[in-house]
Design goal:
Length: 335
């Protein structure tokens, strides 16, 4: 499996990484500053770990930042090792569903594991080359300012691991890309002593077009009631690792094997049936498919604690058999 092969390579490049990770987490809020629960380790932690084992790249080399981004993604995934395999029909519908307005940052903080690897068979990451894209890692870190979340994607392309960072806040995907480029410019200028020119504006739009379909996949994993199943352990759900007390102190153990999570099977079957029955006639309005879309909503009392919920509403058969069956299931559930 591709992510496991990268993990084995990473262990050889950073032989002290696992020991450092355990030290930082075991001393969180005691000997090292605390950080938000949604992040496995902050950026500063990964910079420190990379610096300990780095014998080649100077810290002022942009390639060092890329190496840190790759380390952070794959090393975080080591303690989860979840591979998310979407139903083909659901994945196709999700990647075609546009995310409009601001990125739902509060929702993305609810990743089922600290880092997920999402498979994307048959996909490409263009950026001038059209490289095969086998999948990507997605995880969260905090920036140098405590509490500021970053969604980090590490694209598993043919012959290339391409990191992309997106600051999470009250802004759109395009604005997030622009902010990230601006932060990178400021960061590199510290080392080179002069301004580093930002990419051509068209480049930002190309990046957005490439990220847009990918972002819908981890967003679905964070949404309310996602369909996630494990064939080998049907009663299990994805979870975040916890420290274990041993005779040698607190330890953080990785899983004994990689877990494959199947996503959206029931919805995929419904979509296939809806597509197959799409030509069936009905009285009044002709059966048709309603486009999939994201739906955000608030729950909780107006004067109390409130939670922002997010759901992906897939293709719906209107005036057709699928819609009628879905309505029937909902009525039974309400009863």
């Amino acid at each position: 499996m591709r992510p496991l092969s990268y993990l084995h390579t990473l262990g050889k490049l950073y032989p002290n990484a696992w020991q450092c990770v355990e030290f930082l987490i075991a001393n969180r809020g005691v000997r090292v500053p605390d950080w938000p629960e949604w992040s496995f380790l902050p950026v500063g932690g990964w910079l420190a770990i990379a610096s300990i084992d780095n014998i080649i790249l100077p810290k002022d080399d942009p390639a060092f930042d890329l190496a840190v981004a790759r380390l952070a993604a794959v090393a975080t995934w080591r303690y989860c090792q979840g591979v998310y395999r979407f139903d083909d029909e659901v994945r196709a519908a999700l990647v075609s569903t546009e995310i409009t307005g601001d990125i739902p940052g509060e929702v993305l903080l609810r990743l089922p594991e600290y880092c997920v690897y999402v498979e994307t068979p048959g996909s490409e990451w263009f950026e001038g080359k059209g490289l095969p894209l086998y999948g990507f890692w997605a995880h969260l870190t905090c920036s140098e300012k405590p509490g500021e979340p970053y969604l980090n994607l590490l694209l598993d392309c043919e012959g290339l691991l391409r990191p992309i960072g997106l600051p999470i806040g009250n802004w759109s995907l395009l604005e997030a890309v622009k902010l990230n480029e601006k932060m990178a410019e400021t960061h590199f200028s510290k080392y080179f002593g002069h301004q580093v020119g930002l990419p051509d504006p068209a480049y930002k739009y190309d990046i957005v077009d490439g990220i847009q379909p990918l972002l819908s996949l981890p967003l679905y994993l964070c949404s309310d009631e996602p369909e996630i199943e494990n064939d080998r352990e049907p009663k299990m759900s994805p979870k975040r690792p916890e420290l274990t007390k041993t005779k040698k102190g607190w330890r953080l153990f990785p899983p004994d094997r990689c877990r494959v999570w199947h996503v959206g099977r029931a919805t995929g079957e419904t979509l296939r049936r809806a597509s197959a029955s799409g030509q069936r006639e009905s009285k009044g309005v002709r059966p048709h498919l309603r486009r999939p879309h994201w739906h955000g909503f608030w729950t909780g009392q107006l004067n109390g604690e409130r939670r922002f919920g997010y759901k992906w509403l897939p293709t719906i058969m209107v005036r057709g058999r699928i819609n009628e069956e879905a309505n029937g299931r909902q009525r039974n559930k309400d009863d």
